[in-house]
C-alpha cells in the first residue's frame, strides 16, 4: 500500500496554476491585494488539476494518538495515562479541538495507532468514514503496538511497525475522502510526542537538536536540557539516514508521526489538500516529503507553532504558515483556526466577479 500510494502522487498541474493566476488578475481587486491567499489559491488549483479548485469542504480532522517509550527518560512532567484520558475527552466533545471543530463544522476522528492503555470501545469495523453525525467524534481502533520503545535505548519501532502505522494513515485518508471530505486536517495526541518530533526534524534537516527541541507542554529548564540531551544521544546512537524515511520513523519516530505521514501521502495521492497543524504534523510532513517530494503540493501550513522545530521544518518544506498565534497545543487546533483562510482563498476564485462581468473599469 505504501509504495502504490507514493507512485500515485503526481506533480501539480501547471496549466491549472496558470489559469488560477490569470483569473486572479481579472478579479475586481488590485492585482496581488489578497497577498498569500492568491498564491494559496494557485497552489490548490494545481493540486486539483483545474481552476477553480473545489471548495475545501467538508473538513475532517484526523487525530492520531500514541504513547512513547522515551517518556521513561523524564522528558515531560505529564503522566503517560493522560494520552488515554484526553482521548476520552475528545470522544466526549470536551477538548479545545472539539470546540474549534464545532465552530468550523468539521468532523473529528480519533485513531488509536499506539496508545499504551485501554481505551473506550471503538466503533464496529473501525472505519473512519462511518459517521452518523459530523458533531459526533469517532474512535478508530488501529493500534500497532502499545506505545513505542524508548528511542534513547533502542529503535522506537521496527520497520514493519512504522510501515503499519503509515499505512493506517493512508487508509484513514482514503476513508475520509471517500466519505466526502474535501480537506483533511492533522491532529495528534501523545504525551511526550514533541521529543520524537524534535528528533525527526533534526534528522531530516541535518541540524543539532538544540535547534529543533522546544518545551512542549511547558517544561522547566532542567527537563528541557534533559530533553535536548536525549534527542542528541538518540540521533548519535541510531544515525538515521534522511534518504530512508521509513528507517528514520522507525529509529526515532512515533506511531502517530508515522500515521500522519501516511495520511499526508494518502491525501496527496487523491489530490486532496492537507492542512497541517503544529510541530508533530510538520515533523511527519518532512517524512512524507522524503517518501514523495511532490506530496508537498498537497500540504498547507496552518500556523507557526511556538515549538522551534516547527519553523525549521516549514522552512525545509518551503511552506509559509497562514497564521501565527504562538500556539503549541496540538490536537489539530491551529489547523482548525486556519481553515477559514483556506476556504476564503478558494471561494474568491468561485464567487468574485471579474472586471468585465461586473462592468468595473480597470486602471
TrEMBL record:
CDD domains: DMB-PRT_CobT. SUPFAM superfamilies: Nicotinate mononucleotide:5,6-dimethylbenzimidazole phosphoribosyltransferase (CobT) (SSF52733). The keyword rRNA-binding does not apply. It is an enzyme of class 2 (transferase). Keywords: Cobalamin biosynthesis, Glycosyltransferase, Transferase. Coiled coil: none annotated. The active site is at 331 (proton acceptor). GO terms for biological process: cobalamin biosynthetic process. Its EC number is 2.4.2.21. It catalyses: 5,6-dimethylbenzimidazole + nicotinate beta-D-ribonucleotide = alpha-ribazole 5'-phosphate + nicotinate + H(+). The keyword Cytoplasm does not apply. It comes from the Bacteria. GO terms for molecular function: nicotinate-nucleotide-dimethylbenzimidazole phosphoribosyltransferase activity. Pathway: Nucleoside biosynthesis; alpha-ribazole biosynthesis; alpha-ribazole from 5,6-dimethylbenzimidazole: step 1/2. NCBIfam families: cobT_DBIPRT, PRK00105.1. HAMAP family: CobT. Belongs to the CobT family. PANTHER family: NICOTINATE-NUCLEOTIDE--DIMETHYLBENZIMIDAZOLE PHOSPHORIBOSYLTRANSFERASE (PTHR43463). Catalyzes the synthesis of alpha-ribazole-5'-phosphate from nicotinate mononucleotide (NAMN) and 5,6-dimethylbenzimidazole (DMB). This is Nicotinate-nucleotide--dimethylbenzimidazole phosphoribosyltransferase. The gene is cobT.
Amino acid at each position: 500500500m505504501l509504495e502504490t500510494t507514493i507512485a500515485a502522487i503526481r506533480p501539480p498541474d501547471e496549466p491549472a496554476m496558470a489559469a488560477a493566476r490569470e483569473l486572479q488578475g481579472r478579479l475586481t481587486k488590485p492585482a496581488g491585494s489578497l497577498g498569500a491567499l492568491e498564491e494559496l489559491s494557485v497552489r490548490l488549483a494545481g493540486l486539483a488539476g483545474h481552476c477553480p479548485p473545489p471548495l475545501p469542504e467538508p473538513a475532517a480532522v484526523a487525530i492520531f494518538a500514541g504513547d512513547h517509550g522515551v517518556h521513561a527518560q523524564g522528558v515531560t512532567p505529564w503522566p503517560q495515562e493522560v494520552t488515554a484520558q484526553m482521548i476520552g475527552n475528545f470522544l466526549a466533545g470536551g477538548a479545545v479541538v472539539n470546540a474549534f471543530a464545532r465552530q468550523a463544522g468539521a468532523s473529528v476522528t480519533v485513531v488509536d495507532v499506539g496508545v499504551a492503555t485501554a481505551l473506550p470501545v471503538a466503533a464496529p469495523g473501525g472505519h473512519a468514514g462511518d459517521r452518523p453525525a459530523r458533531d459526533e467524534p469517532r474512535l478508530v481502533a488501529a493500534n500497532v503496538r502499545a506505545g513505542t520503545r524508548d528511542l534513547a535505548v533502542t529503535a522506537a519501532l521496527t520497520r514493519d511497525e512504522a510501515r503499519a502505522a503509515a499505512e493506517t494513515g493512508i487508509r484513514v485518508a482514503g476513508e475520509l475522502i471517500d466519505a466526502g471530505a474535501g480537506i483533511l486536517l492533522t491532529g495528534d495526541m501523545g504525551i511526550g510526542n514533541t521529543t520524537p518530533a524534535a528528533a525527526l526534524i533534526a534528522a531530516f534537516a541535518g541540524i543539532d537538536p538544540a535547534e529543533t527541541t522546544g518545551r512542549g507542554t511547558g517544561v522547566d529548564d532542567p527537563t528541557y536540557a534533559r530533553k535536548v540531551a536525549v534527542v542528541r544521544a538518540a540521533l548519535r546512537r541510531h544515525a538515521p539516514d534522511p534518504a530512508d524515511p521509513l528507517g528514520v520513523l522507525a529509529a526515532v519516530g512515533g506511531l502517530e508521526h508515522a500515521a500522519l505521514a501516511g495520511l499526508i501521502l494518502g491525501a496527496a495521492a487523491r489530490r486532496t489538500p492537507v492542512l497541517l497543524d503544529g510541530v508533530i504534523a510538520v515533523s511527519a510532513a518532512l517524512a512524507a516529503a522524503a517518501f514523495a517530494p511532490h506530496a508537498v503540493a498537497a500540504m498547507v501550513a496552518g500556523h507557526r507553532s511556538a515549538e522551534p522545530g516547527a519553523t525549521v521544518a516549514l522552512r525545509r518544506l518551503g511552506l509559509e504558515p497562514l497564521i501565527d498565534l504562538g500556539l503549541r497545543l496540538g490536537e489539530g487546533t491551529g489547523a482548525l483556526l486556519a481553515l477559514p483562510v483556506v476556504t476564503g482563498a478558494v471561494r474568491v476564485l468561485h464567487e468574485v466577479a471579474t472586471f468585465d462581468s461586473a462592468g468595473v473599469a480597470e486602471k
